[in-house]
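Below is a complete specimen:
___
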Amino acid sequence: MARVGFLRRLVKTGPRLAFPLALSIGWGAHAQAQCRKINLAAGTLDDALLSLAHQTGTDIATSESGAGIVLVKPLSGCFSVSRALERLTRGSGYRAVAVGNGSYRIVKAPVRRLAPTPAKPQSVQTEGQLDIIVTGTKQKVALLRFPGSVHIVDGKDFALGIGRAATLDDLASMSPIMQKTELGVGRNKLFIRGISDSSFNGPTQSTATVYFGEVQLNYSGPEPAIHLADMERVEILEGPQETLYGAGAISGIIRLAPHPVELDRIAASGTAGGTFTETGAPGYDVNAMLNLPIARDQIGVRFVAYRMRDGGYIDDSLRKVANVNRTDTFGGRVTLRIEPGDGWSFEGGVLSQRIEAEDAGYTETIAGPQTRRAFLPQPYNSTITLWRAVLRKDWESGLEMVSATGMVRTDGSDSFDATRLFPFFGPTIYQVDNNGLQLTQETRFSRTTDGGISWIGGLVLLYDRNAQRRVIGPAANPFEIIGVTNTTRSASIFGEITVPVTSNFSVTAGARGTVAQTQGEPTQTPTAEPSERGNLLKRVQPAIAVSWLFAPRLAAFARFQTGYRTGGIAVARGLGRIANFQPDSIKVGEIGIRRERSGPRGLSFSSALSIARWEAIQADLFSRRAQPYTDNIGNATIVAVEAEGDWIPYKGLRASFALLWTENRTSGELAGTSVLQNRHLPDTPPFSGNVALQYQWSHRGGHEFGLGGSARYVGRSVLGTGCFLDLSQGDYATFSAAATWRWRKFEGSINVDNIGNDMSSRFAMGNPLTFGFREQTVPLRPRSVRVALGMRW
């Protein structure tokens, strides 16, 4: 025991010495595959290693001085030595390397590598610093050294921000770098940093691509509106991400990171809340999680289920119905995780969600506040189902392989009242049904060498089919009109390498080569056909970036990236017509600066300036005759300045802010019909921002309390390009407040949203067939109060 005490003192002295110390722990080699009873208390990594060596008689060596300040969780059970070391070092910034004869060496884990298992990757603590990790780069990169703009929302922040489990629509409200339409949950479009094409849904590829873990969720149409129950965090990578993610990600990537299956413990949680809206109907939300290890440390499964109702608050005076715009969301997911050992791991599962809305959420100014007049209800629904399988292999050399396969099925239906356009039919309905199938497969390899050079390369295959069917006519017997089906097949190879020129300056370069074929077919024989029904694309998209750490915890970056979207066929102007729409492309350059706190208190912030040139912009539009069509509308130059900061002056108090200023001008025949001050991209206000203040403290008896407040401003924007869409929206401010309580396994919260009860128009359209009458608005939800209780065990 004298030797153990001496080694403990030696390790704890290490961080203060100017030279590395070699530490040899143990009393000989043993068969490392043998399962041994191990009981390690929570504490520092060096203490845990000493105790493990003492209990197993294993040689464990390290020259890393930071092991004395890294905290580890307790470990108890029957483990092999290698398995115990893997569990101890998981997420610590260190890893164990076998050196022969049953001995191990503890070394720093390469920062740019992904974790070998889906263990929580949020942070790595080294040398007293807490480094936030960005995993959306498909490697493990410290946020401080990431050469680009990224916004990370921790799942724990929802409680003082939204209260209930959030949706992507909620995240767009929390961060000004994101914009969205307001057609309704499940049929909205998301944009990042002002790269927005149109306010309407159609066959064009989405400008922002959503990923669930390693698997792509959307290709075209609205964002999938996945409920973020049991979500660990969300990463928003801004600007084109063509090199790693392919076509379509021209405004950025939104990566949803769910909590991983825990293999070492049974866990469960549940939350139920009720929402009360002024002058509206009440709503509710419930969600539950159950984590079950099947074979401890090897096989486990995690279940998540949820249901939410947004109560309506809009009345229909013509049909004499109140609170018509009720929306229900329900779904869940099951995840299986298997770790057979030797660096292999598997994660697979299924996610399914359905959204049902009783009616549209717009009002008409001529009918009065929160009121409209419609001859027919205008319900909509959407369903998404995801199957995914992710296989990983991690070698001791640092090489990692990830193979991810996904299948996504989507179905949606939108109904609109067209009676005012076709009164001779009597009550008239216009309905659009969409269904899609998407298959993706990606296999990639990555590694960080001992010299700090990191690289990633892979192959991606994609198949996407989206079919649109349309009917119009008497509500009891509508007739079919022309729709389209677009099918895309693509194959890509990509690679990226980061080279540290010096210890503080690194260069990242990459490229992606893609061959893509898009074919389109009409649902009926068109009166006029396009020149071709297929587009073959062959593209190589380059990217380059640099990162410079010019002061402790302060870094600058610069990045240049390109992106594009494929073309296809779409409904054209005039009944029974289809036409081609061509690919568009974008080039973006940005420079920025980022500062991280050096401890639990202080200021962290980031800021960036970006300039984008977007050419041959694809847009889904409506004509003056209420006809949907898709076209390339022209070009745009977009300048954006963004900033966000987070200040903790002392423990428990946190102040934060975020803002986006953008200026854009569109050019082209359609844009030229607008007045000069309205020649902007849709849904992109010149300025948006928010501020928040939170305070959390502990009270005797183990009670924890939190108070928070926030203010948000959204500037004025227009509905779309061209004089017909010159409808103003936005230019409003809202205020929210929240209070939370936690005690042992229990928690509660109260959230108040839109305290001032502002009813400004957040969107100037609800029914695309009649918005030309200039009477429609989509008001903010009135003042709402949510009360919730939850439990974890």
